[in-house]
Specification:
With about 190 residues, the protein is α+β, with helices and mostly antiparallel strands. The chain has a domain at about 30-105 and about 130-190. The chain has helices at about 1-10, 15-20, 50-55, 65-80, 80-85, 105-110, 120-125, 155-160; strands at about 30-40, 45-50, 85, 95-105, 135-145, 150-155, 165-170, 175-180, 185-190. The strands form two sheets. It has a six-stranded mixed β-sheet with strand order 4-5-2-1-7-8. It is globular, with a radius of gyration of 18 Å. The relative contact order is 0.21. Bound molecules: zinc ion. Zinc ion binds next to loops.
Length: about 190
């Protein structure tokens, strides 16, 4: 599967299903992040993947003090999930875990170098010219009154002006559903979904 993913990437034709399984940074679309929300009883696990372009406006290696400050600031903001994804106060959710990090191309290539299929010309086509970074964050929330989880408001778009859209996958006892939430209508109605 990994070999296939790399071969497809070389032709810039990674299918969404495959991309989800083995995400390559070069395959992300600037402006579009992904959010997975899994609700199980009073516990909500959230995973965010967002292009560096969306969060700090650049994906080059931090070369100045200003760049580094922007990255640190972004991580600090990303580690406050309830300020990004605003839940109804009545649900009484608290943050149990929050961790955010920046993933860069080098980390990804390190992993790819182990694969023999990655050598030779495919390697040359692999987009070394275009560097990409992605922020990844994982959260766990605990909500005392999960019945009050009627929706999410995405202050995320206010905090990150370059973000346009979040592709959302919601997993609950009712199954898995996909949504898209954009800057023009930054809310997700959860009534009847959980
Ligand atoms: Zn990028």
């Amino acid at each position: 599967m990994k070999r296939l993913a790399i071969a497809l990437l070389a032709t810039a034709a990674v299918s969404p299903a495959l991309a989800q399984e083995h995400r390559e940074l070069g395959a992300h679309e600037h402006g579009v992040g992904r959010l997975e929300i899994a609700v199980e009883g009073s516990r909500i696990a959230i995973g965010l993947e967002a292009p560096g372009a969306d969060i700090v406006g650049f994906e080059h290696a931090a070369s100045s003090a200003g760049d580094r400050a922007a990255l640190d600031q972004a991580i600090a903001v990303l580690e406050k999930p309830l300020e990004l994804f605003v839940l109804p106060g009545g649900a009484q959710c608290v943050v149990t875990e929050a961790a955010a990090r920046l993933v860069d191309e080098e980390e990804h290539e390190h992993e790819a170098h182990d694969d023999k299929a990655h050598e030779g010309e495919k390697h040359a086509d692999h987009g070394h010219e275009a560097q990409h970074t992605e922020f990844r964050a994982n959260y766990v929330l605990t909500c005392a009154s999960p019945a009050a989880l009627t929706g999410i408001e995405f202050a995320y778009f206010k905090l990150f002006p370059n973000a346009r859209e979040l592709e959302i996958r919601l997993i609950s006892e009712k199954g898995a559903k996909s949504f898209e939430v954009g800057r023009d209508a930054p809310a997700l109605d959860l009534k009847g979904q959980l």
